[in-house]
Structure formats: C-alpha cells, structure tokens
Specification:
- There is one protein chain.
- This protein is an alpha/beta fold.
- Helices cover 32% and strands 17% of the residues.
- It has helices spanning 89-99, 140-155, 164-167, 178-189, 221-234, 237-247, 256-265, 272-281, 297-302, 321-330, 349-352, 354-370, 407-415; strands spanning 8-10, 20-29, 32-41, 75-78, 109-112, 171-176, 194-200, 307-313, 337-342, 384-388, 391-398.
- An eleven-stranded mixed beta sheet has the order 1-10-11-9-8-7-6-4-5-3-2, sandwiched between helices.
- Strand 8, helix 10 (321-330) and strand 9 form a beta-alpha-beta unit.
- The longest helix is centred in the C-terminal third of the chain and has 17 residues, at 354-370.
- The relative contact order is 0.14.
- Mean pLDDT is 85; it is low at 1-17, 47-69 and 158-165.
C-alpha cells in the first residue's frame, strides 16, 4: 500500500431539507405480514400505501409518464441481527444526499425486517403454539427465501405499467452482519436477481444446529426454557447497551433512543422467546436450500457470479478485517472484488459511519453503471477522510494480501 503524503478531508454539504420520502409497507410472505420501507425522491414517490405492496402504483415522472431508463438499479439494505429497518435510516439519508445532484439517475432504496425481527411477526403469536407459528423455523434459509421472494414480488414486480426493461432489472444488495451472510446466499442461490453485493462486516457463520430439535415450532421443553431465559437476558436494556458499547467504536454514534428501539422490537409480539429458541437450534444455510450440518458460507462465496464490495469497519471486535481477507481469497477469479477499510468504525458501518459508507457505495454503484468495476486500480483514494457527526474515518482501499493478520487473527479465521 502506498504511503499517503497528504490528506483530503471530504466535507459533504447539502441542504437540510430532505430530498426523499421513506414510506412504510406491509407484504405477505407465506401468510406472515412483513414490514418494509421504500425510499424514493419526493417528486417521484406516489402517495403512501398501507397494508399491501407499495409499488402497486405506476412508476411515473412529473408529467405522469412511465420512468424507465432514468431509474437506477434498485438497492436493498439488509439489517444485522436484533434490529429493524430503523437501523438503516442514517444510511438511507446519506445515500439520497449523495444522489441529490444526480436525479437523472433516480435511486430507489428498500429496507426489510426479517420474519421474527423488527416489526415482522406472525399473526396471533402464542409463544410458539399459535396457529400461524406451527412448523415455522426462524433460520437463515427462511430469511433467504423471504429476501428472494421480496425481490421478486416487490422490488422487481412485473407491473403491467412498468416497462419490461425496468421490470427485469437486478438489485444491488447491501448487507451488514447477518444481512451480509444472507446476501451471499441469496446471490449464490439466485444469481439472476443480484447485480452486485456490498458486504459490511458480514458474519461468516450463522446457525448453531444444536442437537435434540430441528428448530421447527413448537419447541420441546428444554429449548423452550433456554430460549426464554436467554431472550430475556439479551433484551435487557443494560445488555443492549453493553452490546452496543462493544459493537461501536464511537459511543457518541448511538444513544438511548437506539437502545429503546432495539428493546421495542422484542415487545411487539408474544413470539420472541420461541423465535430465539428456534434461531439457536436451527441449522446453517446450504447452497441448494436443503438442510446441512456443513457451514457453507465460503462455498457460497466461491460460487458467486456478481461483483462484490467488502466494506469493513476496522475496529469491529468480532467480524474483523482478517475475515475479509479469507472472504476475498474465496471469491472466484472472474468476479470483480474490492475491499475498503474504515478506520474508527466498528461492526455497523451503515449506522456508525453512514456518510463514509454512502460515499463508498455511490462510487461502487457508479462504476457498476459504467461497467468500470475492474478498471481503475483504486476507486477510493486511500488518503480520503470523511467527517462523521461524531468523528473522522479514513477510507483505505486494500488488496487482500495487504490486510494485516495477527497471530490471534490467524487462529480465529481458521475456526470459521
């Protein structure tokens, strides 16, 4: 990596008025109401729609004519564990700030809550014994299926009022933590739906596959007891605060409102205890969607056919840059990959460093539109510093061999 001889501080100044509108929606997945949000420019967004697909409305410009070529590849943001789409709001805001001067390229952003997370819960939950909970399993494959169906039925819905060229687009997926894990399997299982991946400190493992139960509700007595005890521990306000202290490098990047939002997610349904037990006992995801004891995240990476950006908070105590190095080494040679590291950022770059994250993502998507992802050796200059509300972060693009590994890192990576 070349040494930096000077520093450029990026100061992004935009009008304070919001240029976009964020609209809630509800979508049905296998009989379960799924909460999602859609962000679009104010002058392009139709009236809010509740209780159904928000994009049942025609996509039109200011003259009432269908928008086709001006619409960019849609963007889907996937959350980490235990939060809802509210955890993406800072990033959504920065994406539209960066896009204000490019309204000839209309951007549409979607966020979604996984089943059993955020505001997405089965109807009439009864601690795993409700009629809508029967045989339900809160596992990675369920969420992959949910995301895949959402892309097909909502984001790329073949509405008769949308041109065929627009309706058959792919999507850019941005996934943080377990959202990055899910994104890899969505792209591996359905390459026809995904234009590119941006993985923000993705977790390489998910699904403990504990013995004695397959995770399908209702739970036996022992998993039920364990799920109830642990769920009540992790949703304690002090526990949530302790987790955020570890996950975030900058304590000023989160406050009591985020802690309360996370807690509130656990109080929206009487199904949280059963859901957590199911998560603990469910198996990991397999490439073909079948059950397997084998953790196949790296095999899924090796099967990808879309371009991959890895954007890592350097100070993540769990999903460290060392894991990014192994991930980069697993992606196939024909796939264009880029790795960018953010200093002074922890596990959730989308929420802790939204300005820097949006800056990198916009550069990534612009190169994708222009077909230049494999072109310039550095699409993010390594001497760029972005000012966040609570401090500065430096953008550092690296090749896989330039990611430093400590002895502890080598040991940790060998186990997952």
């Amino acid at each position: 990596m070349m040494q930096c001889f000077y520093v450029v501080v990026i100061v992004l100044v935009f009008p304070r008025s919001e240029s976009y509108v964020l609209r809630p929606g509800i979508w049905d997945f296998r009989g379960h109401p799924i909460a999602f949000e859609k962000a679009d420019f104010k002058d392009a967004a139709p009236e809010p729609t509740f209780g159904g697909n928000v994009n049942d409305d025609a996509v039109v410009d200011n003259d009432g004519l269908p928008l086709t070529s001006s619409i960019c590849t849609p963007i889907l943001l996937l959350n980490g564990f235990g939060v809802g789409s509210f955890h993406q709001h800072r990033l959504v805001q920065e994406i539209f700030k960066n896009n204000q001067q490019k309204q000839d390229h209309r951007q549409i952003v979607y966020c979604i809550d996984y089943l059993g997370q955020g505001r997405s819960w089965p109807q009439d939950c009864q601690d795993g014994h409700g009629p809508f909970e029967a045989n339900l399993r809160y596992c990675g494959q369920t969420w992959v299926d949910q995301v895949t169906s959402f892309i097909e039925e909502i984001i790329l819905n073949d509405d008769e009022q949308i041109s065929e060229a627009v309706a058959k687009r792919k999507v850019h997926i941005v996934g943080n933590s377990v959202g990055g894990h899910l994104a890899v399997f969505v792209a591996a299982q359905r390459p026809d739906l995904v234009e590119s991946l941006a993985l923000l400190n993705p977790t390489p493992v998910w699904g403990l596959n504990l013995p004695g139960w397959n995770g399908r509700l209702p739970a036996p007595w022992f998993p039920k007891i364990v799920g109830r005890y642990l769920f009540d521990r992790i949703r304690d306000l002090k526990t949530i605060e302790t987790y955020l202290e570890a996950a975030y490098f900058n304590r000023a990047a989160y406050d009591r409102s985020l802690i309360q939002q996370i807690r509130d997610c656990t109080e929206l349904s009487n199904g949280g205890h059963a859901a957590f037990a199911s998560i603990l006992w469910s198996p990991p995801i397999n490439l073909d969607g079948k059950e397997s004891e084998e953790k196949m995240f790296y095999q899924a990476l090796a099967s990808l056919d879309c371009d991959v950006l890895m954007l890592f908070g350097r100070d993540d105590p769990w999903c460290k840059p060392a894991f990014a190095r192994r991930m980069l080494e697993q992606t196939p040679e024909h796939v264009a990959t880029r790795y960018v590291e953010l200093s002074n950022v922890g596990h959730c770059p989308n929420n802790e460093a939204p300005t820097a994250t949006a800056f990198v993502l916009q550069a990534w998507w612009q190169l994708s539109r222009e077909g230049r992802i494999t072109g310039d050796p550095w699409f993010v200059e390594s001497n760029n510093i972005v000012q966040e509300e609570w401090g500065q972060t430096q953008l550092m693009e690296k090749k896989s061999h330039e990611i430093e590994l400590s002895l502890l890192d080598r040991v940790a990576v060998s186990f997952v």
